[in-house]
Design brief:
The structure holds 2 protein chains of 2 kinds. Chain A is α/β, with parallel strands linked by helices. Chain A has 7 helices and 10 strands. Chain A has a single domain, classed as 3-Layer(aba) Sandwich (Rossmann fold). Classes of the chains: A alpha/beta, B alpha+beta.
Chain lengths: 224, 798
Amino acid sequence: MIHLQNINKYIDSRFQRVFILKEIELTIEQGDFVTLMGPSGVGKSTLLNIIGLLDEDYEGEYTFEGKSIKAMKDRQRSALHKSEFGYIFQAYHLIDELTVYENIETPLLYRNVSSAERKSIIAELLDRFNMVAKKDLFPEQLSGGQQQLVGVARAIAGKPKVLLADEPTGNLHSAQAKEIMEVFQELNREGTTIIQATHSRENADYGHRLIEMMDGKIYQEVSI
Amino acid sequence: MWKNYFTISIRNLAKRKLYAGINILGLTIAIVSFLAISLYIYHEWNYDKMYSGHDRIYKVNQEFSSGGEGQMVSTSPSALVPAVLEDIPEVETGTVIFDISIFSTVLISGEELSVEESKFAYADHNFFNVFDFGLLEGSPESALAEPNQLVLTETTARRYFGDSRGTVGKTLKVESGEYTVSAVMEDFPSNSHLDFDFLASFKSHRHGREPEWSPSNYYSYIKLTQGADPAGLNPKMEQLVEKYLGETQRNYNFQTAMHLQPVTDIHLRGDGLQGVKPGSDIKYIYIFGIVAILLIFIGIINYVNLATAEATERNKEVGLRKVMGAERGQLFNQFISESFILSAFGVVFSLALLALMGYKFEEISGVPMQIGLLFTPWGIGFLLVLLLMVALLAGMYPAVILSGMDPLKALGKKTKLGGGAWLRKSLVVIQFFISIGLLIATMIVKQQLDYMQSVNLGYDKEQLISINTHHKMMETIPSLKSELTRKGLASSASLAADMPIYIKGGYAIQAGFDNTKEISITGYAVDADVVRTIGAEIIAGNDFTEQDINRNTAFETGEELNIILNESAVRELGWTPEEAVGKKVQAGTPARVKAVVGDFYFNSLHHKVGPLMIFIDQGQTNLLLVRLAKGNPSEHLANLEETWKRLVPDRPFNYRFVDQEYAQLYQSEARVGTIFSLFAGIAVVIACMGLFGLVSYVALRRTREISIRKVLGASGSDVLKLLSADFFVLLALSAGLAVAFGLWFSGQWLSGFANRAVIPLWIYPAAILVVALISFLTIGYRTVTVFVRRPAETLKDD
């Protein structure tokens, strides 16, 4: 499904070239649950951004379902981004001005989903994450774990094929983290491809593949 | 989708109250000013467009010349229109109006009310064919057809009879004649150049029954047939003048030309020609139009400035939305909807404000605020277009900036928007420029107005009153005059045809061997006491005495008429004042220069002092000028009235202060001045609100920096310097531009006046200083609020 070939990303300073990603070769199949691990600054987030079509400033070949990303027009790329990817952030990044319900609704609005359909999708998600009672609250009224649940709900509302999660549990304590990871596992079982970046070995255990990164390179891959 | 945009926008605005408040207030003030000026311009622009076929109606003005420069007058002979109707087939109809109030007031007596009326005119039977005003009662064909008919306006009818209905057939006494009310018409609209309370049938007047080619005291209007070319009428007019006046012209050595003036030009392009109402000037319409647009721009600039400054605060939201799949167009729509909401608030509040405060503007501008016009389909369309324009102009740039942000950068640490800063700075420069420029313009206008009020006119207009007289009371005048001086109420009094502020009579005199040198001259008919009464100065020769004969006697007996010339007349005739005394001239009748009086302004200050001839002719006078004695004027006036009532029991005591009338002359200029200062003030206020908002954002964004500086020992004034330095560079730049504009404007504005104030240079730094000071206070206030926050609080986040 996702095929990365010789991906390089670097910053040129006056005397030297600093690589953020170097010679990345990676293939991810549909239904994979991949964990990117490694210390801070190793390039995990950058790699996620490239995969998620948020960063176009790199060298190398990226194909998604056989189609070359670089060859696509902006419009196609943005359509692909909209339909296939969902994002979850470490700092949740909910919109403060919107209620739980409206936060989940936002991606659906941008996908031109009809009002009736939106209602049923959101109702289903709220139900699934036990947040029906909280649907009219604003993010600041929720605990971190609950906020991240909203983040997850929002990410999967558009029914993406790929879920990208950058340190999804970094701001949570262990019980909350466990809950989120169990949700991930369940989503994966239902067929969603998940790629997460994390420091935590425990989180990695929920996935199938563990890719360890070091200095912008893939250091080794472990199957779980 | 749009519904969602709107909910989000409203919540965003509710959260950023300061931001929303400043924007709405700024837009409201800008829009309300714009609407008020628009209504004003609409009113003025539509002057005299309410008559059907108004584009075919022309006023006939007359140009006299006798050698020298021609003199244009707005009146013409009563025989003109009948002759035109007979001789020129392209003229469909025409009417003659005789505005008697040029000469004197008219005493109207009803059963209960007896008033000295000034809005009284005679009009011939075609009046309603040319000006199709609506009649509430009576028929337009017969209303002015017979002698002693009287048409009242609705208000007048109510004033005299308590009710406008059922007044037809009732009678009123006009002076001593009995008139029957033949019709009641709607009141003259405020934007018709005609404005009367009474229209009497012209047949009631001698010149209406027997049209004559002299005198020229009447307003003539003609309406052309459909498709007739007004320019093609000129040769026919010339032929007509030749046919009826040719011989007289050659005998008396003068030329007359008739000029057609579109009725819709009378108000705005009247060139100072006398009319029923004082006219305005198209120049003012343009100036106000520009001011209105400038004000809207200042409001919009506020919005753009604040919104782009605020963009730095909202980048996270934008980034998130993009990551969730928002397309640029969708985000653009969201931000536009925000500006749309703010503008809509602006429009709604403006309408409310206009409804509440409109009467104030009415007082200032003298033009009714027809707010109802804004709720007609056209008005609503206008408001919607305005709303759309403001929302788009204001929202476009911020929306482009915000929707174009890179999501990755936006989600990262706080970013600065580099490109926006440049634009923001230019916009601030424009705002400052407009504010300072308008202030400078206001001060220039004021300087000229003050100059006109304080200039030495060459006579003394203070403590001088003018009382209406009537030719029937001429015998009483000498005893009245001596009574006034004897009782110590007046130091002097004199009959006169006009107040010295505006003398109208046009004459020509010839001088030199064989009377070869001829000049046009203004004539002032008075009695012997006028020079001392108005306080003018004799610079050569001797003032009139009671022994000097009047012009009529001179005509009849052929005796020499003594006249007084002013300095300008003497200069134009090529004499010094001393030489002039005793010189013989031809002034319709043989005359001798008895004295020379120093130049005084007897005309609008728009014009230079021209030649003036003063002669005695009580028959032409209709005013008694009275120089009040020293002491309490109101006491004198009370005694004066009592004396008057005793000596002239049948005429009401009706007086005006000459200095107040003088101020009236410059009413339209004074209004321009007031309106100008009002909107200049408003511009400064809006601009400073924008500045306040902008400084607030800068201060908030730099809160952390300020706190660190404070920890390191910076004082409040250091921080103030830090925050204001940028703005003062911009202010200096704008000030330079504004001064250049001011210099240009003063040239433009003053070119309309023959007598100009010297504009002192201090007004430039003064205007700049005012704006600088207000800006400084604004920045200072904001700095203090940031500075007093505890560093421990502001720094702990990071």
